[in-house]
Design a protein that fits this description.
The chain is built from eight helices and no strands. By secondary structure, the protein is mostly helical. It has two domains: about 1-75, Rna Polymerase Sigma Factor, Chain: A (Orthogonal Bundle); about 75-159, no CATH class.
């Protein structure tokens, strides 16, 4: 597949792929990176893609996998989630785990930036004093934010 053929076949899918990535990641920069990562992978496998019947489905599935990988491995101020939130349970099905991850991601995306940052710092193992230094908030304020977020999450998650 030549460069022009690649552009002809895959660039029209960009708006659709970007929307899918935004829906999953809830962050413009993360979504752009995920789509760019997908295009890089597609280019590397361009010779194998000739036999794919539905390129759109293939691209959307590959992008979904990239986004899930980002959700599992990134903790940053943009609102990505990590597996630290979840407690592994052998009795849950993969669909239940995926649904739980989606629910947590939607919850995190709905938080104001300051609350999201406090929660992410706490989830990544920082103590209250470290969070206090990083955010400029008092330790009491941080404890109140964490407590309220826990209550709010329980209410949100148990709808």
């Amino acid at each position: 597949m030549t460069h022009d053929e690649f552009k002809q076949r895959f660039l029209p899918l960009h708006p659709l792929l970007f929307r899918d990535a935004m829906r999953i990641l809830c962050d413009r920069f993360e979504a752009e990176d995920a789509v760019q990562n997908l295009y890089t992978r597609l280019w590397e496998k361009r010779l194998e893609l000739q036999s794919i019947v539905s390129l759109e489905s293939y691209c959307r599935t590959a992008l979904r996998n990239i986004c899930i990988g980002r959700l599992r491995g990134i903790v940053d101020s943009a609102g990505s989630v990590t597996d630290d939130i979840q407690v592994p349970d052998e009795t849950r099905t993969p669909f239940e785990i995926e649904d739980e991850q989606r629910c947590i991601q939607i919850y995190l995306c709905s938080l104001p930036p300051q609350q999201r940052k406090v929660l992410q710092l706490r989830m990544s193992g920082h103590n209250y004093e470290e969070i206090e230094e990083l955010t400029g908030l008092s330790a009491v304020n941080i404890r109140v934010i964490i407590t309220r977020l826990r209550k709010k999450f329980r209410k949100y998650y148990n709808k």
